[in-house]
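FAQ

Q: What does a record look like?
A: Structure on top, sequence underneath. For example:
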């Protein structure tokens, strides 16, 4: 095989690997961020559940204060019942006493229901706490694994780049320019295999004459469809 062609095929293999490595490397930070998003969501859900518990506890304390206040008020009114002179005032105060008793009963009931609501909210908060713990552990494991992978891909990339640099020095300068231009304009594939009698890059069938020439791998021949440098793999 023509030495230049051999070098170009090797170069193409290395450039394809570089493109693949660069592509994979570029996706890793986004994948880590996506996973982190789940942790952020779990933490937000926990915050919401915690706020709900606190809100219900505040409400309960408020109702307990209201209950104490209503109890004291009831005692005051009940005490006054004995000092009242007129029937009219007595009836009015009795009505107030009944109103306060009703209020106390309602508050007591609401406080009881409130305890159930708090228990429910605390249970939800516990679930969310567990979810955060699990998600955080998963995320840290995932992040570690992807970062290890990233480092090994970067190591491989720098090795391949060095090899590529060495290889490209072995190719004649003007041919290397053609190769690099094609690599850029032809979606990373500058040197195309023609084993199936058509160009691997654009799938145009080769004329019998061109195919015969390419089969020998003894000259630089290019595709009539896309301009890629052709070779025959055998
Ligand atoms: Zn082609």
């Amino acid at each position: 095989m023509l030495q230049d062609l051999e070098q170009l095929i090797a170069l193409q293999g290395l450039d394809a690997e570089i493109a693949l490595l660069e592509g994979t490397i570029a996706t890793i930070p986004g994948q880590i961020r996506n996973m982190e998003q789940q942790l952020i969501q779990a933490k937000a859900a926990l915050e919401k559940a915690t706020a709900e518990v606190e809100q219900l506890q505040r409400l309960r304390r408020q109702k307990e204060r209201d209950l104490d206040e209503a109890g004291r008020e009831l005692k005051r009114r009940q005490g006054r019942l004995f000092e009242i002179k007129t029937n009219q005032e007595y009836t009015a105060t009795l009505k107030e006493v009944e109103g306060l008793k009703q209020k106390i009963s309602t508050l007591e009931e609401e406080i009881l229901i409130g305890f159930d609501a708090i228990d429910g909210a605390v249970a939800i908060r516990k679930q969310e706490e567990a979810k955060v713990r699990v998600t955080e552990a998963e995320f840290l494991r995932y992040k570690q694994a992807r970062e290890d992978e990233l480092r090994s891909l970067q190591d491989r990339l720098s090795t391949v780049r060095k090899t590529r640099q060495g290889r490209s020095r072995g190719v004649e300068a003007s041919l290397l320019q053609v190769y690099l231009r094609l690599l850029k304009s032809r979606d990373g594939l500058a040197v195309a295999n023609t084993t199936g009698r058509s160009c691997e890059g654009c799938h145009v069938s080769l004329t019998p004459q061109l195919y015969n020439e390419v089969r020998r791998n003894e000259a630089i021949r290019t595709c009539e469809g896309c301009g890629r440098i052709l070779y025959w793999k055998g």
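Q: Is there anything notable about this one?
A: The mean pLDDT is 96.
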